[in-house]
Specification:
Distance between the termini: 55 Å
Shape: elongated
Strand order of the largest sheet: 3-2-4-1-5
Order of helices and strands: EHEHEHEHEHEHEHEEHE
Bound molecules: S-adenosyl-L-homocysteine
Number of strands: 10
Helix content: 25-40%
Structural class: alpha/beta
Radius of gyration: 19 Å
Length: 245
């Protein structure tokens, strides 16, 4: 067990979707006191620059399948540096609690006895909807929102998610990590009865200067992604919200 009086602290901070104005004031305060910043490659470097010049900066996760450092070694490094008295900021795209491996990190940090604070961020799906002018809830057509992963675990995507429930969901579906798997999840939703005519909006690089929005339908989304060569990061909104543009 470490001596808590000598230890530093770990901040798990949401950086928002990319625009440097979309981080919280608390997030900036944490960065200003950082000795070490470990940041996702999707994070805008202008946000990392809130850290003092003396702070060490480490870029992580160029690609989920080809990480520069494994998730386990990132956690081990954060804990070791904080045990050595450093203030460590783990800066994540969007919100740390949305598809951000928060559970594993919190469990390891709590077991180490190091002090930890989580700072929320603007998650990509909500930023994408707001910045594209699409209300994801609406008293007329969407009384709920679901954040859904398009990421496959293993080969059998259908076993990961209950598509029958998602097809009946009374609101907007927002797919993260769903660009490469669009053919699989869109087909699964249609097989479970979601109409091929359901409105879809693909929002790529939300809040960045080169943000693009492409509107299509559930039946055409996979072809549209291929045709427009849409690459990650993008979120895909499914439902009447996507038609409100
Ligand atoms: N914690 C992040 C999500 C991490 S998973 C958050 O809350 O936003 C990574 C996925 O987030 C990407 O595959 C993409 O679906 C989405 N994403 C991240 N930044 C984005 C952006 N600027 N525009 C659109 N999608 C984005």
């Amino acid at each position: 067990m470490n001596d808590a009086s000598m230890s530093g602290k770990i901040f798990l901070v949401g950086a928002g979707p990319g625009d440097p104005g979309l981080i919280t004031l608390r997030g900036v305060e944490c960065l200003r006191q950082a000795d070490l910043v470990l940041f996702d490659y999707l994070v805008n470097p202008q946000i990392v620059d809130h850290a003092p010049p003396s702070a060490e900066r480490v870029c992580l996760h160029r690609h989920a399948r080809d990480p520069l450092m494994s998730a386990q070694s990132v956690i081990a490094r954060m804990i070791a540096e904080a045990e050595g008295g450093k203030t460590v900021v783990r800066l994540k795209g969007g919100d740390p609690a949305v598809f951000g491996h928060l559970a594993e990190e919190m469990a390891a940090i709590k077991a180490s006895g190091i002090a930890v604070e989580v700072v929320p961020g603007v998650t990509a799906g909500l930023a994408a909807a707001a910045l594209a002018g699409m209300p994801i809830t609406c008293s007329r057509y969407a009384s709920a929102v679901a954040l859904v992963t398009g990421h496959r675990r293993g080969d059998n995507m259908a076993s990961d998610l209950d598509y029958a429930a998602l097809a009946k969901f009374p609101g907007t579906l927002i797919f993260y990590m769903g660009v490469g798997t669009a053919a699989a999840w869109s087909t699964s939703l249609m097989r479970e009865g979601k109409p091929a005519t359901t409105a879809v909006a693909v929002v790529q690089r939300s809040s960045w200067p080169d943000q693009t929005v492409v509107c299509c339908t559930l039946g055409t989304v996979a072809a549209v992604i291929a045709e427009h060569r849409i690459a990650p990061p993008a979120v895909i909104l499914v439902g009447d919200a996507a038609a409100s543009r």
